[in-house]
């Protein structure tokens, strides 16, 4: 390969020793035209190079930032709205107020006055609903509309749901029968769920699909002569870190702004401004219509996946559970259903894929198994949406709304994400310390448990110092002389746990899913939050006085159990990480006579004609 030093540049935006690789992509393939001093570049790394060469990210295209901005606006609308749900439901309409506002220094805004248990139940239902519907949205995208079109329709539905929420908070409604605003709130939550369900599982894979490189490639840095591996996993890690930062910028501004809107103006404004912000999303999405790389849907992918799974299960189940376990873990579960291993006369008509696609499906199922422990992590996070807000209402506010402190969570994320991405993770890579996804996720469980221990201790002192003892949140009880800022540790620890566990789940879902099932695997990861909300329903009895110490303590113990069990079950995947990421892409929709060729065109999925595939023009 000829030397081409002009096409390799160093960009100061990345921080691996102050450098990021900007690589010129060949029109026909993801080629990296770098070859210095006779080095054999532009190839997959050897086994030795995998263990010795430093790994660096690819340059992030401009299109990714426009998608991240869409996510910022959508999360502004979601978190800005849900930030005031607890007070809207729990606190009563202040005397003389027609909007729910209550500007007094130690006073809380409110409308319905249904108490902490009801507010926890409804906010928990909202969490469950918003994270169940992505399964439906992912199926529509992967099978029928594609990610881009599904996102577009989802935004329209989401806007409709926000308009209904505005109606629930206008003065004529909230000053009338209490059932009116409650019914409108619930209907708005349900409609928003359909919108969120179509948006969340599809925007996550869409943003990483804009990257050029999909396999690890060895190159030589032109200025230093250092040989490095451009690793798509490291690039995806960086993209999702900054994607998550955009999410939390939207959440931070939305939550802080809407909390003050509700307190000083009214809930109608706290619902109106997020709706206006959400209306920006379709315009930006339309701008990218001819600029985004869009993978079209491929029909009944999910159906064929479950048919394949059903075929692999045949003959493996036994009345003796020990025999069943051995049959399921004998190493032939997926191998036995590869097209090359099945006689042509026995091959079903729906098996129009090759062996490599079966390997991808197996990897995707393993990823879904990794996510099964996540409900025990998310139950820690969900405390910031209800119980910690209610805890703050019993403390000395000093003019700070009780639901504003939750913004320490996105604020901490915005600070910590760049520090980890530009300082901590590059340093670990230079030291050849492989902080794998499995290790990061495990650490995330323990960070979440630590946050709950902090909340448990705060609650203990609230009960000890309250004039009402273990009924500190009852009406008529004076606020406890503990500053609300004592809660800070819980929010910061939860933020740290999100970086380790939540962001990593996005990376893992994308890197381990078949290319034509990325939305569905992302939806499975999101669905774990819904399961955690269901567990939260089981714990709702503890979400009130005098049981709140038990509430936080039980959640902490569950997170510790989840972290230990997760590590014991999946620690072996550390050694398989590179192998799983380097699997060849499968072919889907191939001719029956060709689908038994194991290595046929391993570099690409056989897709129908793509809707639009263009590199960044912006």
Brief summary of the model shown:
This protein has 618 residues and is mostly helical. The relative contact order is 0.14. The chain is 58% helix and 4% strand.
Structure description:
The protein has 21 helices and 7 strands. Helix content is 58%, strand content 4%. A 3-stranded mixed sheet has the order 3-5-4. A two-stranded antiparallel sheet has the order 1-2. A two-stranded parallel ribbon has the order 6-7. The protein starts with 7 loop residues before the first strand and ends in a 37-residue tail after the last helix. It has 2 domains: 62-298 and 361-581, MFS general substrate transporter like domains (Growth Hormone, Chain: A, Up-down Bundle); 301-349, no CATH class. The chain has helices at residues 47-52, 62-82, 85-90, 115-132, 134-169, 171-174, 179-208, 232-264, 267-278, 280-287, 301-313, 321-328, 355-371, 375-381, 387-393, 408-430, 437-465, 488-512, 518-538, 548-570, 573-581, and strands at 8-10, 21-23, 54-56, 217-220, 227-230, 395-396, 480-483. By secondary structure, the chain is mostly helical. The model is unreliable at 1-38 and 597-618 (pLDDT under 50).
